[in-house]
Design brief:
The complex is a heterodimer. Chain A is mostly beta strands. Chain A has no helices and eleven strands. In chain A, a hairpin with a 4-residue loop joins strand 7 and strand 8. In chain A, 35% of the residues are buried. In chain B, strands 2, 4, 5, 6, 9, 10 and 11 form a seven-stranded mixed β-sheet that branches. A four-stranded antiparallel β-sheet of chain B has the order 1-3-8-7, with no helix packed on it. Classes of the chains: A mainly beta, B mainly beta.
């Protein structure tokens, strides 16, 4: 079993749709969680951290469920520019040690 | 945040040769890392570049194959030695920032093709 698992997709959605991705992790002692975005042929960029209480940044909402060991990313009112691969990242501790990347979920937003 | 300059951006190399990738950061950072991303795959950590001491390699990666230098807190190099076609990949340097070094910023990557 992979340490961090994501549905690779692709998720094909129309503009304006709401889409959600889940990511499961196997190490129950994991402390920090993040979503990164990677555009085609570009480097990953931090999208948002995921806090225990959940957090929202504009159209993006991240949630953490420690009991079921998954994190989620919800994108509302999808834009064409949201098309990218979304990487789930889990850290063993709060100092960024033992960062593990998921395989990524590809999102394609169509007109 | 951190601005990272990585070069070369791409190269095509013959098997058996070596390539050195450079990573320059615009500020002093404690934690620098080298990752590999093969086509369609996620990122795999090669090693942590330690300033003033030998790099810490992950399972499956060895110093003879991927020697790393970290002469100061703003610069690091990764060499891919004695290359084979299996080394064709994107190589990314990364730095950790944030209150507890929990956030990663990446260089733009080096796309390596070995013939």
């Amino acid at each position: 079993r992979k340490e961090v698992e994501q549905d690779p997709g692709p998720f094909n959605v129309p503009e304006g749709a709401t889409v959600a991705f889940n990511c499961t992790y196997s190490n129950s002692a994991s402390q920090s969680f993040f979503w990164y975005r990677q555009d085609c042929r570009k480097e990953p960029k931090l999208l948002m951290s995921v806090y225990s209480s959940g957090n929202e940044d504009g159209r993006f909402t991240a949630q953490l469920n420690r009991a079921s060991q998954y994190i989620s990313l919800l994108i509302r009112d999808s834009k064409l520019s949201d098309s990218a691969t979304y990487l789930c990242v889990v850290a063993f501790d709060n100092a960024g040690n033992m960062l593990t990347f998921g395989g990524g979920t590809r999102l394609m937003v169509k007109p | 945040s951190a601005v990272i300059s990585q070069k070369p951006s791409r190269d095509i190399c013959q098997r058996g040769t070596s390539l050195t990738i450079q990573c320059q950061v615009d500020s002093q950072v404690t934690m620098m890392f080298w990752y590999r991303q093969q086509p369609g795959q996620s990122l795999t950590l090669i090693a942590t570049a330690n300033q003033g001491s030998e790099a810490t390699y992950e399972s499956g990666f060895v110093i003879d194959k991927f020697p790393i230098s970290r002469p100061n807190l703003t610069f690091s190099t990764l060499t891919v030695s004695n290359m084979s076609p299996e080394d064709s990949s994107i190589y990314l340097c990364s730095v950790a920032t944030g209150a507890t070094n929990e956030k990663l910023f990446f260089g733009s990557g080096t796309q390596l093709s070995v013939l």
